[in-house]
C-alpha cells in the first residue's frame, strides 16, 4: 500500500509519520546542511557567474582539440553508408541523445542507444554499415566497455569522445576526439558540469562540420522540421496560400473606379488588379488609392480606373517563398501582392493570408 509523508523541517532533517493502514512508523531523513542564511542575492549571482566562467573556459579550450583527429572523425561519418549510433551512460547519455538529435536534423542519420539496454538486446539495432559514437568522460564506463568487444567483432568504426585520451575507450577507438576539461564547475568536482558542456559543444562542432561538408541547405533543414515555424517559413510558397480563379480581384482597363470598388468589396483583399485583354497586369488599385481619390473629391462613377491606378505595381511569382513575400511587403510597406506568370495575372495574396499560414 502506498503511504504519505507529512514532513516537518528542523535542523536540516525531514521528520514525519508514514501513514499505513496497518501501522504508523516515524521516519527521519537527513537532508544535508541547513540553508546558509548568509548568502544574499549578490552572493548567489556570484556563484552562478563562476559556473558560467568555468564552463566558458572549458569550451574555449576545445579550440585546440579541433585537429586532425576531429577531421578524421568527420571523414569516418561521411564515409558511413548507414547511421551514426550515439551511445553513452548517465549524463553522457543525455548529451549523447541531444547530439544524435542534432546530427539527424542536420543531414546525418543518427539515433541514440543506451549502452545498458544494448547489453540486453538493443545491440541488434546496430548494423555493419553504421558508425558508433561513444561518449564517456572517464573513458572507462563499464556498460560501454561491455559492448566494446561486440562492436569490434562487427568491425564497426568507433569514434570515442572522452576526457581521457589514455582510457580504454580512447585506445580502442578508430578515432578519439578529446573533450576533456581542466575542472568541473561543481565545487565538489563531482557533478558533471563543464565536462558535459564541453561534450555537447564538441558534438555541435561535429554536426555543423558535417552539415557544411554535405552541402546541407536551409530547405533540407526545413524538411526535418515540417511542424515548426521554421519549417513553415522554408516550405511554404506563394502558390500554397495565394487566391486563385474567381477569388482574384481584377477589373479591365476600361473599368471605372466604381467597378473597382465593387470588386475590392466582393473579394476582400483591399485591392484589385487592373489587367488588359491578354490578362497581363497593367496596374493595381488599393484602399490607399481610393482614400486619396476621395480626398480630391473625384467622381468614382465617371473616373476611369486607368487614370488613378498605380502603374508600377510590385508583383511576385508563385514559386517565391512565402517568407520572402512577407519581407517584400514589409520593405515596401504594402499589405498585398499580385502574383504573375510571364506578366499574366494568376493569383493574389495579402498579409492576412500569410498570418493564417503561420509564415509571419
Q: Give the H and E element order.
A: EEEHHEHEHEHEHEHHHHEHEEHHEHEEH
Shape: elongated
How much of the residues is beta strand, in percent?
15-25%
Spatial extent as radius of gyration: 32 Å
Which parts are unreliable, with pLDDT below 50 for 5 consecutive residues or more? 1-24
**Mean pLDDT over the residues:** 86
Number of beta-strand segments: 14
CATH architectural arrangement of the largest domain: 3-Layer(aba) Sandwich
Q: What class would the helix/strand composition place it in? A: alpha/beta
* Name of the CATH superfamily of the largest domain: Glucose-6-phosphate isomerase like protein, domain 1
Q: State the distance separating the first and last CA atoms.
A: 54 Å
Helix content range of the residues, please?
A: 40-55%
**Sheet with the most strands, sense and barrel status:** 5 strands, parallel
Broad CATH class of the largest domain: Alpha Beta
Total number of helices: 15
- CATH-defined fold name of the largest domain: Rossmann fold
What is the total domain count? 2
Amino acid at each position: 500500500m502506498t503511504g504519505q509523508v507529512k514532513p516537518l523541517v528542523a535542523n536540516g532533517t525531514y521528520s514525519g509519520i508514514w501513514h499505513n493502514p496497518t501501522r504508523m512508523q516515524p521516519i527521519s531523513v537527513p537532508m544535508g546542511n541547513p540553508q546558509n542564511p548568509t548568502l544574499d542575492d549578490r552572493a548567489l549571482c556570484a556563484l552562478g557567474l563562476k559556473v558560467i566562467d568555468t564552463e566558458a573556459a572549458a569550451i574555449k579550450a576545445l579550440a585546440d582539440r579541433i585537429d586532425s583527429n576531429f577531421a578524421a572523425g568527420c571523414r569516418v561519418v561521411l564515409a558511413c553508408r548507414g547511421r551514426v549510433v550515439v551511445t553513452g551512460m548517465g549524463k553522457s547519455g543525455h548529451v549523447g541523445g541531444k547530439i544524435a538529435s542534432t546530427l539527424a536534423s542536420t543531414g546525418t542519420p543518427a539515433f541514440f542507444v543506451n549502452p545498458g539496454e544494448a547489453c540486453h538486446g538493443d545491440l541488434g539495432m546496430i548494423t555493419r554499415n553504421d558508425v558508433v559514437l561513444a561518449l564517456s568522460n572517464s573513458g572507462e564506463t563499464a556498460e560501454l566497455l561491455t559492448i566494446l568487444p561486440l562492436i569490434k567483432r562487427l568491425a564497426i568504426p568507433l569514434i570515442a569522445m572522452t576526457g581521457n585520451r589514455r582510457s580504454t575507450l580512447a585506445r580502442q577507438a578508430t578515432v578519439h576526439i578529446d573533450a576533456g576539461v581542466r575542472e568541473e564547475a561543481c565545487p565538489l568536482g563531482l557533478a558533471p558540469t563543464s565536462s558535459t558542456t564541453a561534450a555537447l559543444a564538441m558534438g555541435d562542432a561535429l554536426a555543423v562540420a558535417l552539415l557544411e561538408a554535405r552541402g546541407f541547405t536551409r530547405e533540407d533543414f526545413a524538411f526535418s522540421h515540417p511542424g515548426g515555424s521554421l519549417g513553415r517559413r522554408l516550405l511554404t510558397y506563394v502558390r500554397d496560400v495565394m487566391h486563385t480563379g474567381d477569388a482574384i480581384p481584377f477589373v479591365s482597363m476600361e473599368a471605372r473606379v466604381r467597378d473597382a470598388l465593387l470588386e475590392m468589396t466582393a473579394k476582400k483583399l483591399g485591392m484589385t488588379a487592373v489587367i488588359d485583354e491578354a490578362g497581363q497586369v497593367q496596374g493595381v488599385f488599393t484602399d490607399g488609392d481610393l482614400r486619396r481619390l476621395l480626398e480630391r473629391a473625384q467622381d468614382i462613377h465617371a473616373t476611369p480606373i486607368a487614370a488613378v491606378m498605380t502603374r508600377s505595381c510590385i508583383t511576385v511569382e508563385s514559386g517565391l517563398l512565402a517568407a520572402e513575400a512577407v519581407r517584400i511587403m514589409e520593405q515596401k510597406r504594402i499589405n498585398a501582392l499580385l502574383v504573375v506568370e510571364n506578366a499574366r495575372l494568376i493569383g493574389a495574396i495579402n498579409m492576412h493570408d500569410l498570418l493564417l499560414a503561420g509564415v509571419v
